[in-house]
């Protein structure tokens, strides 16, 4: 396909795609899907080899949020039966983080529900970052605490945070349909504050909320302009008890096309598969590793992921390798500051971050609400093959272990 040859060439040279090209990727047929994955996989391997970066979520404070993000199980008025608890103590958070690091993660994402932190909250998180860094040399720490006020990003940086996640989630034109208690501009402002403070910016999206292809291209192009180092791609986990509970719009094929589009638009950026990986990609998860170079290990914020051991086996079986703590994630031109690769890069013309992002997408951080997942409680109860876009509530399991419980975390 001429289009794919062109996109590979552009990806290897970090040349920007046109909107028409990005839309064309989303519009490819299932017959062309493996060709699309192979093409985007060439770009992924050029910049990231066969490495997979593992990230580990620690939900510092769960539920009871005053904001109304429709996708979030922690939102105002949510009746989802999620864990609800206030701030973990530094030693509790450090213990949870240690489990993820022992499982192979190199980045810990500290997430808290809420509109944004108070200065006292920032002090509290600073103590947690210190505790985690004292116990785990070389660990990358990303904070995801919502909207930041002036000076807070700088204080987190001084406390040792390497990165800050805040997702754009969806296009500017549809943002008001998803959330009314804050604006798209508020989110952009926080990503810019993190960037300006010297934190590695992480910002991504949630797919599957009823958006159009144009919306997806809009948000990915907006991310490109913000130039985050990592872009988490969440696939909505339609939690019962939230306004988007009926939005089962995604198929594994659609998820792969979205990841391929993000890879082509942001070729040299850490693209992370976040919440909804197990729910929507299901048995196609290994193919997605040819597109994304980063995933979350184990559970999400409010939902369970597949067993951490299964994540590691999948990576090995697909012919990939877990990225080591001594390996720099980003390509040299982006990782000028070393470490997790930072914002000093020239950028790809696009920035897209991944990571946790928002507090809620159905999944990872980025959002405060992670998605649910399978793995444990979520085993399939039917032997019938799923139909395109069919509701798979059997694959959504509310998190009942790890942070905020007495049970061991999944890592
Ligand atoms: S995404 Fe974050 S701000 Fe929005 S409702 Fe969930 S916890 Fe609150």
UniProtKB/TrEMBL annotation:
Pfam families: BATS (PF06968), Radical_SAM (PF04055). [2Fe-2S] cluster binds at residues 109, 142, 202, 272. Keywords: 2Fe-2S, 4Fe-4S, Biotin biosynthesis, Iron, Iron-sulfur, Metal-binding, S-adenosyl-L-methionine, Transferase. Residues 376-411 are annotated as: Disordered. [4Fe-4S] cluster binds at residues 65, 69, 72. Pathway: Cofactor biosynthesis; biotin biosynthesis; biotin from 7,8-diaminononanoate: step 2/2. Its EC number is 2.8.1.6. Its cofactor is [4Fe-4S] cluster; [2Fe-2S] cluster. It comes from the Bacteria. InterPro entries: Aldolase_TIM, BATS_dom, Biotin_synth/BioAB, Elp3/MiaA/NifB-like_rSAM, rSAM, rSAM_sf. Transmembrane segments: none annotated. It catalyses: (4R,5S)-dethiobiotin + (sulfur carrier)-SH + 2 reduced [2Fe-2S]-[ferredoxin] + 2 S-adenosyl-L-methionine = (sulfur carrier)-H + biotin + 2 5'-deoxyadenosine + 2 L-methionine + 2 oxidized [2Fe-2S]-[ferredoxin]. The keyword Transferase applies. SUPFAM superfamilies: Radical SAM enzymes (SSF102114). Binds 1 [4Fe-4S] cluster. The cluster is coordinated with 3 cysteines and an exchangeable S-adenosyl-L-methionine. Binds 1 [2Fe-2S] cluster. The cluster is coordinated with 3 cysteines and 1 arginine. Residues 47-277 form the Radical SAM core domain. Residues 376-385 have a biased composition (Low complexity). GO terms for molecular function: biotin synthase activity. Belongs to the radical SAM superfamily. Biotin synthase family. Catalyzes the conversion of dethiobiotin (DTB) to biotin by the insertion of a sulfur atom into dethiobiotin via a radical-based mechanism. PANTHER family: BIOTIN SYNTHASE, BIOTIN SYNTHASE, MITOCHONDRIAL. Homodimer. This is Biotin synthase.
